[in-house]
């Protein structure tokens, strides 16, 4: 109580008002005082720094170079900060923890020397790869670095402009996440939007050894890039805001995965975000549904996915805009390829946290943050109708409900929250029960203890998605090669062939995939890009 009062007195506006009050002056109306008090308290709550457990306290020397204030009310904040910082060391570092040991001048002089080795001291994008390494950055940071130093306008970057840019970056941004955002984001933005990733990913497509076969299919560059961007946002943008912050980057494995790209020549080994095989699976699944190939699927198209395994009611919910970006889905009743990426990953990996949120939003029909018994019954009704049509006697809703409540064990009776579903680690079984008949029946037939074992095993990888993508890729490649063999009339050879090793399948796959993609892109050429 004492502390609160002291800090209230430090609010310069309030101090004046308190002084008036103290003198018994009528000028300050109680209502105005209350309002002012409330707004001051709110500002204080907002200014309360995010405390990160385990973050080491910085040495006192770093206080001098404290970055810009974050407060929406700098006036008030400055006063509070100035007083508080005397006693409490700073512990909130939105731009990363400054490292007192790192010698920026040394780094900058190394960069200068590296530029000396380049003709005219002007680096093109290829040379920028070497500069990135001198800067201690992963290779694929080169395009963002090149662009941040103004390279895309002239086609090269001079030592002078690069060093000026890098000096500024080093003094304001202290960890990789903060630097990465600064390099990629639009001017004065502290977050990344989807299009900010395009130049970096185009460079990966153009220069990664595992994607050279895509050179001849430029039509597919944007499809691959769209897929990777959606996968990045699906995994990293945990807030669903469409804006990736430095905190979200830090909490994700994105930068580590990006750094892996330069060490791993086989891009399919990098199953997070970048795998070409995963892209191929997603795109083929979409292509099968998008019968007129205009890069959109209708509600009827989407319901054909996996032999109509998903219920109409859940598909309807997706098309109501519960989980999609923009208004196209609701207004025009069509889903873009980007939205399909979210659907497919969510459908095939219902243990993924984003997937759990995705389906929760869909099932929470009234949007009150709780799955009520009414909502569960609504979805189960269609499952029952379907089972009856198949001659299967469904479990009565009441019995099923008991089963599900036992599975989820919600904290509050009769109300299932997102937290309950995440905690119970059975969300996939729960969701399939309510809207995916094929998978529901599949779970039912399995030994319940086997499922339990699966969960308890808790092995970190592969995810349901990884498993699905690998299986589907093999099926697709087998289909393609069977077709190719058939067309060539060498079916005998195919039958006597030794089984191919996984790596051979991969290589073969890439070739086949390219040819089949080219075939598909031939059909797509008249269609505008997204
Ligand atoms: Ca279509
Ligand atoms: Ca609800």
Topology overview:
Elements: H1 2-10, H2 12-22, H3 30-47, H4 74-84, H5 104-116, E1 122-123, H6 125-134, H7 142-148, H8 151-154, E2 157-158, H9 159-172, H10 176-184, E3 191-192, H11 198-207, H12 221-236, E4 244-245, H13 246-251, H14 254-260, H15 276-289, E5 296-298, H16 299-303, H17 312-319, H18 328-332, E6 334-336, H19 337-348, H20 353-363, H21 373-389, H22 397-408, H23 418-424, H24 427-435, H25 437-445, H26 448-457, H27 464-488, H28 491-496, H29 502-524
Antiparallel strand pairs: 1-2, 3-4, 5-6
Helix pairs in contact: 5-9, 6-7, 11-12, 12-15, 12-19, 15-27, 19-20, 24-25, 27-29
Residues 290, 292, 294, 296-297 line the site of one calcium ion.
How would you describe this protein?
This protein is mostly helical. Among the domains are: 104-172, Recoverin, domain 1 (Orthogonal Bundle), CATH 1.10.238.230; 190-289, Orthogonal Bundle (Recoverin, domain 1), CATH 1.10.238; 293-446, Recoverin, domain 1 (Orthogonal Bundle). The chain has 29 helices and six strands. Helix 6 packs across helix 7 and helix 19 crosses helix 20 (353-363). The radius of gyration is 28 Å and the shape is globular. The structure holds calcium ion (CA) (2 copies). Residues 364, 366, 368, 370-372, 375 line the site of one calcium ion.
């Amino acid at each position: 109580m004492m502390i609160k009062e002291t800090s209230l007195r430090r609010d310069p506006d309030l101090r004046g008002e308190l002084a008036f009050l103290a003198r018994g002056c009528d000028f300050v109306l109680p209502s105005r005082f209350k309002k002012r008090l409330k707004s001051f308290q709110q500002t204080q709550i907002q200014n309360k720094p995010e405390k990160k457990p385990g973050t080491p306290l910085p040495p006192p020397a770093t206080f001098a170079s404290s970055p810009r204030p974050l407060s929406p009310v700098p006036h008030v904040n400055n006063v509070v900060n100035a007083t508080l910082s005397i006693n409490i060391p700073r512990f909130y570092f939105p731009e990363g923890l400054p490292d007192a040991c790192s010698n920026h001048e040394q780094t900058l002089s190394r960069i200068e020397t590296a530029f000396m080795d380049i003709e005219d001291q002007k680096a093109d994008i290829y040379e920028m790869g070497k500069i990135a390494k001198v800067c201690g950055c992963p290779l694929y940071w080169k395009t963002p670095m090149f662009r941040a130093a103004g390279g895309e306008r002239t086609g090269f970057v001079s030592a002078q402009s690069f060093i000026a840019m890098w000096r500024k970056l080093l003094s304001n941004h202290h960890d990789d996440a903060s630097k990465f955002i600064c390099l990629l984001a639009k001017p004065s933005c502290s977050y990344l939007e989807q299009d900010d990733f395009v130049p970096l990913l185009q460079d990966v497509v153009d220069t990664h050894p595992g994607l050279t076969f895509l050179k001849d299919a430029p039509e597919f560059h944007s499809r691959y890039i769209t897929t990777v961007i959606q996968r990045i946002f699906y995994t990293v943008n945990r807030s669903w805001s469409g804006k990736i912050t430095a905190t979200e980057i830090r909490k994700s494995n994105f930068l580590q995965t990006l750094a892996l790209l330069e060490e791993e020549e086989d891009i399919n080994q990098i199953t997070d975000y970048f795998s070409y095989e995963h892209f191929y699976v997603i795109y083929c699944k979409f292509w099968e549904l998008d019968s007129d190939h205009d890069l959109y699927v209708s509600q009827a198209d989407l319901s054909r996915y996996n032999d109509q395994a998903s219920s109409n009611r859940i598909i309807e919910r997706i098309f109501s805009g519960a989980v999609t970006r923009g208004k196209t889905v609701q207004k025009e009743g069509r889903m873009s390829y980007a939205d399909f990426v979210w659907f497919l990953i969510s459908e095939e990996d219902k243990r993924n946290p984003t997937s759990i949120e995705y389906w929760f939003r869909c099932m929470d029909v009234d949007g009150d943050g709780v799955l009520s018994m009414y909502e569960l019954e609504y979805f189960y009704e269609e499952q029952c109708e379907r089972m009856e049509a198949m001659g299967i006697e469904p479990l009565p809703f009441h019995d099923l409900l008991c089963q599900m409540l036992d599975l989820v064990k919600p904290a509050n009776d009769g109300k299932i929250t997102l937290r309950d579903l995440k905690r119970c680690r059975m969300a996939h079984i729960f969701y399939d029960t309510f809207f995916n008949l094929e998978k529901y029946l599949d779970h039912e037939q399995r030994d319940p203890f086997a499922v339990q074992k699966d969960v308890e095993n808790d092995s970190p990888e592969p995810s349901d998605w990884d498993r699905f993508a690998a299986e589907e890729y093999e099926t697709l490649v087998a289909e393609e090669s069977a077709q190719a063999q058939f067309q060539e009339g060498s079916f005998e050879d195919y039958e006597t062939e030794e089984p191919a090793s996984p790596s051979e399948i991969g290589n073969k796959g890439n070739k086949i995939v390219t040819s089949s993609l080219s075939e598909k892109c031939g059909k797509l050429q008249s269609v505008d890009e997204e």
